[in-house]
Specification:
The structure holds three protein chains of three kinds. Chain A is of the alpha/beta class. Chain A is built from 25 helices and 30 strands. Helix content of chain B is 16%, strand content 18%. Chain B contains seven helices and 13 strands. The chains are: A alpha/beta, B alpha+beta, C mainly alpha. Chains in contact: A-B, A-C, B-C. At the B-C interface, β2, α3, α4 and β8 of B face α5, α6, α10 and β1 of C. The structure holds ligand MGD (2 copies), iron/sulfur cluster (5 copies) and molybdenum atom.
Chain lengths: 833, 253, 420
């Protein structure tokens, strides 16, 4: 059974819970600015009958904010930021964590009361996708779904019903790790992987696992993912935002970065082909050719090694750097094969005696970091030497050619990396949106390993600050109450399953909390696949592009209308009480699932209330509960936002330097990737968006489709408050004036963006904020029957579904859509055309 | 001592004897133009569509005094030529000028200055002449033209009338035909709360407090930190200050 | 109904004019005024959203027409007073006509503000809670004073016509008061704009002199037109000397007016302050408001100057009237340019711009550079007030027997003017 990304600290029962604290001094408190993080509270002179609730904002954003909701007469009247408990469950003080919210958060009133809400269940009457509906009752709808699912399962096999993966909400019962998987499991249906990212967030986690986790160890559950707690960035001396637009995609965390800068003089560096709000707030911006990140990292590695700026002590102690590699197989040299009497072990060269020794040999004095050493007739080299050799060609000049970053700037960055300590990296999932996203992550971890920045306060490579703290939750049992896991069908495989019965037929699907028809790449193919289904159910609170293609649409609740729990991207448990009654005939997804399950004869698995499930999942009152939640009472859970039992300092993965890899060390030399020639993080050109691609002559522009602060993916697209501040709600293509001029495009012109897979039409926005040769169109705008955010189409009409097979070595993080690894051409549409 | 999350409203605790002098200090070095303060303002004040008492301008660094023409009609577009670009965000609401042109021109005294420096509009007295809009150098006043539309329908936010010195200075749905603007969240600051935009700003870029209190953070930012006013050359002497923008980023050559 | 009014208002001396024509004239005025009233009622019910104004350009046609009428009100009084103060006998025939026009203009200007108010019912607040630092309060005061003065002056002039010796002194005193009052009225009105630091386009010391001179220009042009009209349609006779004076006044004030405006341009162009330059660029040829430039400098500037100065042209019949009309067009364009363009380019002008206070605008909820075009409501109300003006003047003309001011049996020298 897989568990992952946002979902798992995996083995981190030991990691989080058993964190030992040596270096507590290192951690610095965030600057509280304003000085006394004033406790936010209900507004003064509250209107009569006003009730105030605390909840978590669970909707697919890494902010994971706490909201304070004011309700008057059953209607939400105000949303503001909420407090965090100052202590852990166990009562230890926690680092300052400010109340947080963003524009989207405050706009949630207008989301809940939006005229776009789906009010009732509907049945399709016209052709699929024609937008003709007939209102039906919940009884009718769920009966129809149960009958269809049962019939299709009988005809085509149980897994032919697919419960799509979902990230639209990150809550526990219904969201990213929610009840849909339980439903799949008890009905025998297939489902997307439980990490829930249909879409773009598993490549970098895969790279993280290559280096830091042994996926074959059952304790690691097939791979997991963790990051430094947001407050830990206070301890960094330099923070590199690598392909991370944190100031838009995790806005409240930017405060901590500013605190670090203002209080500790921490340097902020942005590596991004676009000059984003993040770049504008950094001390240094390094525009890079997108997709060339590994080359830049290799360039830094080369500089660090040749100038001996690495942390030799750390490398010897905590990484596989000194271990010898067999040049013929590229695999680790085995001690039992080359040293008589030795047990199974790694082999090192002891500089003290000039001899080969097993890594755990107690007589070992000074293992050589570098060098090629004759062992049993072969010239074995250390992993570090392999790295040095690989990186050698990435001189500043060569790296400049590949990355477009000037050599001098590469040297500057490398010097920073080699001399400033600790350096923290915040990596955006943007890197994951590349075919070689795994490699980019692997490269960053390699660099961090040789500079001694892993498992230390203020270091590391963090994508998801924290990770969904699900060791606390009894997820295995939650998903598989019968002990029989569901069949996993990855989103990348859905189209083939639906249209080619590969690997088996999928004839029906239930999309909930997922706008698959718009958010998945190669959208034209996705729509064909969806249209080929026999039966399609969509649960959503708005009529999404996916809902447009449904046979039955179920009206869902927003986060304010149902009970759940949020525990994402930080280490707090945020109880989400039902704040108002569901509007119209909307029902929570749990209720919808329950009604269908009852009619399919598995109602007994859904017969509890959310509160009952939460007590169960968190083992409240159980003295054997996971140490992170041990001692939690129901009262405490529901009263505020309580921090898990971690060490009082911010969480740092592998702070004890015990790495759950085969070697127990940081494996920047990844043996299991030898078949993919990726044992080292040598740069590889993107699968599509590279000048080396013959397609480049036809489609010479890299096409990014990034995330904007004015919406969360496809959510809130049509909310007037947000539309007003976001170009009047009109999508646009960012293009450099140079590229525009070459195409006769002026600011505001209508352009066609196209490649072999499809096209979209959109207004052009000329901006010097983007590297020439690169374009960007914020993803997620609606392309539904009713609302066209772009003039026509969506960025995903252009993206592809080419899977990276290397990632298969990490079961929980199979390949995702490489959205940004995409080439297009842009042309002006003459006015009147 | 652990000072965080303690229930101490900011304005009231450290206020010295005598009337407070309320100021707001905004740090553009932190501001990332997320518009949270603007939407929060819209929410608490139930501002109709098209009304933005608070808005976030895209400028170049150090634009508080210089006045080069904007780089583009659109937000988020930097000045300069790739890769030598620069950009900063400037949140602008009413500056609560001590020598407020709007107060000077208002023919009926509907716009007035309170002793704490807050500039307010008496919605019951305003005749809707809009002279104050012509006079305000910062473009922060909004007139209720009469075609107002709310989203969501229904009143949100503070939700009730608020009077200062008996004058109606906040009402959930401002009357048609009068002018309105940022009130410094008078209904909140009068009970020692932060203005809502300050509370909501996710990056801590907005600080509110008493300039008469030398210990207050705003005093420090203004006195030691050299926080500047917008268009100081106009002599309006605003009570909103901006921390000087440090030149950034180090652009690559 | 209209014919009743017409009959009532038709003075006996107009007996030789056909009633039908007068009736038609009043009917037209009544219809236009009724249209204005309708538009105003509509505006009252639906708010100022019915106008083309929004938060960037928050003053429009009402205010520039207000300023225009204030300007018009000057000329009459200045002409009338000059006759007394400077003893220009040639201007005497215009005494009552001038004061009548001044009174009518200032009344209409005062009325013009009402539809511009968001809360017209609260207009009394101006008197209950006046804020003495506001130029608008001073302006209201001086407008009222000016109106009262015009009535008083008219009354005196009327009495003087009946009993010249008894009222001559009073008329003289009033004339001495009238001149500075007119100058003050225009200065205070100018300061409504000129004192505003927020609008560099307005914020110039030249604003008051500019207003005064353009007021004299437009006022003289208006009186000229009224006199020509009176001559055309009534027994009023415009003596040659008077015409020459009028022509001279127009030429001189037009020169000065253009000179002042030119000074403004030069100052901005030489100074190269970006904000000021940006505004001027809107007005100069090529800018989006350059039509006001052309109207002001060519149609209302060069052309009338040529018409009035080139001997061959100025002798042609009707030239004075044409020139007066063009001058008025030019001055109106100048008012538009001054007021609207002052708003178009706000001082604090960074993207996304200023919130419009309306969600219905086509380009979104913000404007970086203001747009403004009056709606039918504004045209309706303004036209209605033009009709009111025309009605006051017509009725007043008849009621006051203005024709009496013109010397009888003056030989018609229209075509035999001597160039001097
Ligand atoms: N406001 C908002 N916040 C969100 C979301 C949202 O939709 N809206 N979504 C949430 C989710 S699910 C995710 S996955 C995260 C994503 O969070 P991020 O990864 O921070 O966001 P992206 O917009 O994908 O990309 C960040 C930056 O990477 C740059 N970039 C793209 N390609 C490359 C490259 O090859 N190299 C380098 N160096 N830079 C590159 C882009 O120009 C972009 O500015 O955001 C989360 N937060
Ligand atoms: N071109 C391009 N495409 C991308 C990306 C990109 O960068 N570029 N990013 C990718 C990434 S990183 C991600 S994570 C995905 C996200 O893709 P999705 O998960 O599809 O995105 P969302 O729009 O957040 O949410 C999906 C739907 O869930 C609904 N929803 C929200 N809450 C609930 C609920 O409680 N119940 C129900 N039933 N429905 C609910 C929303 O209304 C929305 O329609 O997009 C991916 N797609
Ligand atoms: S959208 Fe994200 S950043 Fe904004 S309030 Fe919600 S969780 Fe926080
Ligand atoms: S910013 Fe404008 S509205 Fe606010 S006090 Fe100053 S002049 Fe008045
Ligand atoms: S619009 Fe109202 S507040 Fe503004 S000047 Fe006129 S009366 Fe005063
Ligand atoms: S102080 Fe209050 S009214 Fe003023 S901008 Fe902030 S939230 Fe809006
Ligand atoms: S909320 Fe804070 S960071 Fe966001 S725009 Fe406002 S001041 Fe800037
Ligand atoms: Mo994502």
């Amino acid at each position: 059974m897989d568990v992952s990304r946002r979902s798992f600290l995996g083995a981190s029962a030991t990691v989080v819970g058993g964190l030992v604290l040596a270096d507590r001094m290192r951690f610095l408190q965030p600057l509280s600015s304003p000085p006394k993080a004033p406790r936010v509270g209900p507004r003064p002179a509250a209107a009569t009958g006003e009730a105030v609730f605390r909840t978590g904002h669970s909707n697919n954003c890494d902010g994971a904010c706490g909201h304070l909701i004011h309700v008057v007469d059953g209607r939400v009247t105000m949303i503001g930021p909420a407090n965090w408990d100052p202590t852990t469950i166990g009562g230890a003080p926690t680092p300052t964590f400010h109340p947080r919210i963003c524009a989207r958060g405050t706009a949630q009133i207008s989301n809940t009361y939006s005229p776009d809400r789906i009010k009732y269940p509907y049945k399709r009457v016209g052709e699929r996708g024609s937008g003709k509906w007939e209102r039906i009752s919940w009884e009718e709808a769920t009966t129809l779904i149960a009958e269809k699912f049962t019939e299709i399962q009988r005809k085509y096999g149980k897994p032919s019903v697919w419960i799509a993966p979902y990230t639209g909400s990150l809550s526990l019962i219904e969201g990213v790790v929610g009840a849909g998987y339980r439903f799949a499991s008890v009905t025998g249906a297939s489902a997307g992987d439980s990490q829930g990212d249909n879409e773009g967030d598993s490549a970098t986690p895969a790279g993280w696992n290559y280096v830091l986790v042994d996926p074959e160890d059952p304790a690691n559950g097939g791979g997991f993912f963790a990051g430094h707690e947001a407050t830990d960035f206070m301890s960094a001396k330099a923070i590199v935002f690598w392909a991370n637009n944190i100031a838009e995609t995790s806005i409240p965390d930017w405060r901590i970065m500013c605190d670090a800068r203002d209080r500790n003089g921490t340097q902020l560096i942005s590596v991004d082909p676009r000059f984003t709000p993040t770049s504008a707030g950094c001390d240094t911006w390094l525009p890079i050719r997108p997709g060339a990140d590994a080359a830049l990292i290799d360039g830094i590695i080369n500089y660090v090694i040749t100038n001996k700026l690495y942390d030799a002590d750390y490398i010897s102690k905590y990484t596989v750097g000194p271990y010898l590699v067999d040049p013929s197989t590229k695999k680790w040299l085995q001690a039992d094969a080359v040293i008589s009497g030795a047990k199974k072990d790694y082999v090192v060269f002891d500089e003290a005696g000039g001899t080969i020794k097993a890594a755990s040999d107690p007589t070992l004095q000074r293992p050589a970091l570098f060098g090629t050493h004759p062992v049993a007739g072969i010239q074995a080299y250390t992993a570090m030497q392999a790295l040095a050799d690989m990186a050698a060609k990435y001189t500043p000049e060569y790296t400049e050619k590949l990355t477009d970053v000037p050599a001098a700037k590469i040297v500057d960055l490398a010097k920073t990396w080699g001399t400033v300590k600790p350096v923290a990296v915040r990596v955006g999932f943007a890197l994951s949106h590349w075919y070689h996203g795994d490699l980019n992550m692997q490269a960053l971890l390699t660099l961090q390993a040789i500079t001694g920045n892993i498992g230390v306060h203020g270091g590391g490579v963090t994508t998801f600050a924290g990770g969904l703290t699900t060791t606390a939750f009894d997820l295995g049992h939650w998903w598989n109450p019968t002990g029989k896991p569901y069949t996993v069908l990855e989103p990348m495989n859905f189209c083939d399953a639906a249209m080619k019965n590969d690997p088996y037929p999928v004839r029906a699907a239930w999309f909930m909390i997922d706008n698959f028809a718009q958010q998945m790449s190669d959208r034209n193919r996705v729509i064909d696949a969806m249209k080929s289904l026999d039966f399609c159910v969509v649960s959503d609170y708005v009529l999404s592009a996916t809902a447009d293609l449904a046979d039955v649409v179920l009206p869902a609740c927003t986060y304010l209308e149902k009970t759940d729990l949020l525990s994402s991207n930080n280490f707090y448990l945020q109880y989400m009480p039902k704040v108002i009654d569901p509007l119209f005939e909307s029902k929570s997804d749990l209720d919808a699932i329950r009604m269908v399950a009852q009619k399919m004869g598995v109602g007994q698995y859904f017969d509890k209330t959310p509160d009952e499930y939460l007590r169960e999942l968190l083992h409240i009152g159980d003295p054997e509960a996971d140490p992170t939640v041990r001692g939690l009472t129901w009262e405490r859970l529901t009263k505020g936002a309580v921090h898990l039992n971690t060490d009082p300092t911010p969480f740092v993965p592998f702070f004890d330097k015990k790495f759950p890899t085969k070697s127990g060390k940081v494996e920047f030399y990844v043996e299991m990737l030898v078949p993919f020639r990726q044992e080292l993080c040598e740069h590889q050109e993107p699968i599509e968006a590279s000048p080396t691609n013959p397609l480049f002559s036809k489609y010479p522009l890299v096409f990014l489709s990034t995330h904007t602060r004015f919406r969360t993916h496809s959510q809130y697209v049509n909310l007037p408050w947000l539309k007003e501040i976001n170009n009047g709600g009109q999508g646009f293509l960012e293009i450099n004036p140079k590229d525009a001029k070459a195409r006769g495009i002026a600011d505001g012109d209508t352009v066609r963006v196209f490649n072999g897979r499809g096209e979209m039409k959109v207004y052009a926005r000329l901006t010097e904020a983007i590297k020439p040769g690169v374009t960007n169109c914020y993803q997620g705008g609606w392309d539904t029957i009713n609302v066209k955010h772009y003039l026509a189409g969506h960025p995903n009409n252009l993206t592809h579904q080419i899977a990276n097979p290397a990632q298969a070595v990490i079961p929980n993080f199979p390949s995702n859509a490489a959205y940004y690894d995409c080439l297009v051409q842009v042309e002006r549409i003459p006015t009147g055309a | 001592m652990d000072t965080r999350n303690t229930n101490t409203p900011s304005g009231s605790t450290s206020a010295p004897q005598g009337a407070p002098h309320h100021v707001m200090v905004i740090d553009p070095n932190r501001c990332v133009g997320c518009w949270t303060c603007a939407v929060a303002c819209k929410e608490i004040n139930n501002e109709p569509l098209g009304f933005w008492w608070n808005r976030i301008l895209t400028t170049g660094p150090n634009q508080s005094t210089a006045s080069a023409p904007p780089a583009s009609d659109n937000i988020d577009v930097p000045r300069g030529v790739y890769p030598d670009v620069e950009m900063a965000y400037l949140p602008v609401a009413c500056q609560h000028c001590n020598d407020a042109p709007c107060v000077k021109v208002c023919p009926v005294g509907a716009t007035f200055r309170r002793d704490d420096g807050t500039i307010l509009v008496d919605y019951e007295r305003c005749i809707g002449c809009r002279y104050c809009m012509a006079a305000c150098p910062y473009g922060v006043r909004i007139f209720n033209w009469g075609d107002t539309e709310y989203a969501p329908g229904g009143v949100v936010g503070y939700g009730q009338d608020y009077r200062s010195d008996g004058r109606l200075v906040f009402t959930p749905e401002r009357p048609v035909g009068v002018v309105e603007k940022c009130t410094f969240c008078v209904e909140r600051i009068d009970v020692g709360e932060q203005p809502f935009c300050c509370e909501a700003c996710p990056v801590g870029a907005r600080v509110f407090g008493d300039l008469n209190d030398p210990e207050s953070e705003v005093s420090q930012l203004v006195n030691a930190g050299g926080a500047e006013q917008l268009h100081p050359e106009l002599g309006t002497d605003p009570n909103v200050y901006y921390v000087p923008i440090r030149k950034r980023p180090v652009v690559q050559g | 109904m209209t014919s009743n009014i017409a009959q009532l208002a038709t003075p006996p001396t107009a007996g030789h004019h056909p009633h039908a024509r007068t009736g038609f004239w009043y009917t037209v005025l009544a219809v236009v005024a009724a249209f204005g009233v309708t538009a105003w009622v509509y505006e009252l019910r639906s708010g100022l959203a019915t106008t083309g104004m929004r938060d960037v350009v928050s003053w429009g046609m009402y205010i520039y027409t207000f300023a225009f009428f204030i300007g018009l009100s000057a000329g009459g009084l200045i002409v009338a007073s000059s006759a007394e103060v400077f003893g220009v006998a040639a201007l005497k025939p215009l005494s009552r006509l001038g004061v009548l026009s001044a009174g009518a203009c200032v009344a209409v200007a005062g009325l013009m503000i009402i539809p511009d108010l968001g809360r017209p019912a609260r207009v009394l607040n101006l008197f209950i809670h006046p804020n003495w630092s506001s130029p608008l309060v001073w302006d209201i005061l001086i407008i009222s004073a000016y109106f009262v003065f015009a009535i008083a002056d008219l009354t005196v002039l009327q009495r003087r016509a009946a009993a010249p010796s008894r009222w001559r002194r009073a008329a003289r005193v009033l004339a001495y008061v009238g001149l500075p009052l007119a100058v003050l009225l225009h200065s205070v009105t100018a300061w409504i704009f000129g004192l505003q630091i927020a609008r560099s386009w307005w914020n110039t010391a030249l604003m008051a002199p500019l207003f005064v001179v353009s007021a004299m220009l437009s006022g003289t042009a208006l009186v000229t037109l009224l006199a020509l009209g009176a001559q055309r349609w009534t027994s009023f006779v415009l003596p040659d000397a008077t015409r020459r004076w009028l022509r001279g006044l127009i030429v001189v004030t037009l020169f000065v007016d253009l000179f002042f405006v030119g000074c403004e341009y030069i100052t901005v162009l030489w100074g190269n302050v970006p904000d000021d330059r940006a505004v001027l660029r809107l007005v100069l040829p090529g800018g989006s408001w350059s039509w006001t430039f052309w109207l002001e400098w060519v149609v209302g500037g060069l052309v009338p100057l040529v018409l009035l100065l080139v001997p061959r042209l100025r002798r042609m019949p009707g030239m004075l009237g044409i020139a007066a009309v063009l001058t008025l067009v030019g001055v109106y364009a100048f008012r538009i340019e001054l007021i609207v363009v002052g708003f178009v380019d706000p001082l604090t002008q960074y993207p996304p711009g200023i919130a419009l206070g309306a969600s219905t605008a086509p380009g979104g909820s913000f404007q970086l550079v203001g747009h403004y075009a009056p709606t039918w409501v504004e045209y309706g109300i303004v036209l209605g007030l033009f009709a009111v003006f025309a009605a006051i003047v017509t009725i007043g003309f008849r009621g006051l027997h203005v024709t009496e001011d013109s010397p009888a049996n003056v030989p018609d020298e229209r075509d035999a003017e001597v160039a001097s």
